[in-house]
């Protein structure tokens, strides 16, 4: 018998089968365009960063940023919509599917989407010669951890609000600053000292540094276990929040 969480995943995949064309550009084509425009185009003027070419330096940042943005995207409107407009979660609640199954199924769907995009991106980066270490093969694992660390709390947030206008606040004050100050396009140590904590509290920065350490074969700024631990804390706390918010919303 298929587990309830897998059944939730299957439902997400059935819906995605009808909508994949709308997300193909942002999931697969846009990151490659970023890689070419910033890594190759801007890289000609930047030169080297940290002793490596800008293309090789920016690849892990764009990869982690792609995982971050996809995790946010799959945990916002689709979650709120299944509560408020489609009421898909209410329909699931009338079946043997539990609240934890809904959350786990949603996280599995986000993971599949992120991993498929990351693998394609790694292949393209390898063709461009931007992978400098065999440790690059662990970047999908880092991307998966980052995706859960982001998707879980965002799912909790989405289940806690009643209007999609709150997503504008999430995008404007969390998503965009994380992309700007998360070490994606330039080293965080170039930021003023007072601004650097914005990077340190963002799961994206920790994901970027772990991916960069893997693709370049260098040590990250903090010990690996610290970066991974921060992401695990986000994932665990976010999962608890999501399960609690889902249960509370379904009882209302």
UniProtKB/TrEMBL annotation:
Provenance organism: Streptosporangium saharense
Chief site of localization: membrane
Any one GO biological process: response to antibiotic
Record PROSITE patterns: ABC_TM2
Protein name: Transport permease protein
Residues annotated as domain ABC transmembrane type-2: 22-249
UniProt subcellular location: Cell membrane; Membrane
Pfam families in the record: ABC2_membrane
Family, similarity comment: Belongs to the ABC-2 integral membrane protein family.
Domain of life of the native organism: Bacteria
Keyword Membrane attributed: yes
Transmembrane segments: 19-42, 54-72, 110-131, 137-157, 169-188, 224-246
InterPro entries, A to Z: ABC2_TM, ABC2_TM_bact-type, ABC_2_transport, Nod_factor_ABC_transporter
